[in-house]
Amino acid sequence: MTTDTETTQKEDLELQEPKKYKVILHNDDYTPFDFVILILIELFNKNEEQAFQIAKEIHTKGKGIAGVYTKDIAETKSEQVNIIAQNNEFPLLATIDEE
User: Are 85 and 91 in contact (CB under 8 A)?
Assistant: First the structure.
């Protein structure tokens, strides 16, 4: 027989899904469309059609979601985008936001 305390303790031990974070790419007036598509294909494993649609959304709406990940992965991918953009002298910006 389980007591209320044991039941509460078991419920407290249940694993919860980690929070998810969106990696958001922001539009600017200088980064080429093709560079954004390349980033989406190479870093976010999008196919050409998916990458094109996301890049178009970034261009028309000012930002778009490149992917949704756990916090550590989202932070890493965001950093990778920013470093690659800087190394190529583009102002493309990636940020993360809790889903």
Answer: yes
Rounded-to-integer distance, Cα 79 and Cα 64, Å: 16
Q: What is the pLDDT of residues 54-76, one digit of tens each?
A: 999 999 999 999 999 999 999 99
DSSP state of 21: E
CATH of region 27-90 = 3.30.1390.10
Burial of 16 (0-12, 13-18, 19+ CB in 10 A): exposed
78 vs 13, which has greater pLDDT?
Answer: 78
How far apart, in Å, are the Cα atoms of 74 and each of 28, 29, 32, 49?
Answer: 21, 24, 23, 22
Q: Are strands 93-98 and 63-70 parallel, antiparallel or unpaired?
A: unpaired
The pLDDT of residue 87 is above 90:
yes
The answer to whether 5 and 82 have CB atoms below 8 angstroms apart is: no
pTM of the model: 0.84
Written as six digits, the tokens of 44 are 């976010």
